[in-house]
């Protein structure tokens, strides 16, 4: 087993840290990029550099759980194309907060996404975009399948080029195994894409996944419907309203129409639930929401003291 460390032209002492580990573990291979290429190109290049039959894409902030490697080594004996494993969400100090929801299937399951019946079953059970391959740390991919599917330049810069690559594998058959057990702990309070603020971060996910759904499945497909459904799970109306309130309180008034546009896009499907969500969002004055929020926080402090 090898470990490939791809350094995207970092400005810290990453190289020295890795060298200290290489003295003890010669199977660690370090590669430093001459310039920042972005997460899409870096992820693609890391798999190109690897020599193993399978690659587990992994972030520097996350931690594999005990027994995870043995579990995956056993799993890949089945020779499938992709494995999607469970994970725990942690705070910045890596204390486990909860298990992250991926699917409402509570057991391991295998699907061929190239088969329409299997694909729709997989999509119907999805609860978050992690089921649609958003989080690289949950993915163990067969390198030969990855390399046989070129990087889609149209999605480079979107942060979702790896998802586009996996979706492009589906027509030729994509055998996926969902592993319900958490095999890693994810640091959830250190999102590197939050540097431009929460509105920008949310728009990356909302616009990116709507584009993926429409590009690979068509806007009116059941697959696209389920992708939009899980986006609503991740960005509920009250959550978007809270984000809008935060922007308003911080004087970032240019962000308010951006959040409004996201709201319309997330809740675009013509259902009663979406209509009610849009109505609540549009009818709630930010000043009233601020008063209610302040009262709720005060009540929590009072109850907490008691």
CATH superfamily of the largest domain: Spore Coat Polysaccharide Biosynthesis Protein SpsA, Chain A
Regarding quaternary structure, how should these chains be classified?
A: single chain
SSE pattern: EHEHEEHEEEHEHHEHHHHHH
Give the number of domains.
2
Taking Cα atoms only, what radius of gyration do you get, to the nearest Å? Answer: 21 Å
Brief overview:
This protein has helices at 14-22, 39-49, 68-75, 116-125, 143-147, 161-169, 198-216, 222-234, 237-249, 256-266, 272-283, 286-305; strands at 3-7, 28-32, 54-56, 63-64, 82-90, 96-99, 109-112, 139-142, 175-187. The chain is of the alpha+beta class and 306 residues long. The mean pLDDT is 93.
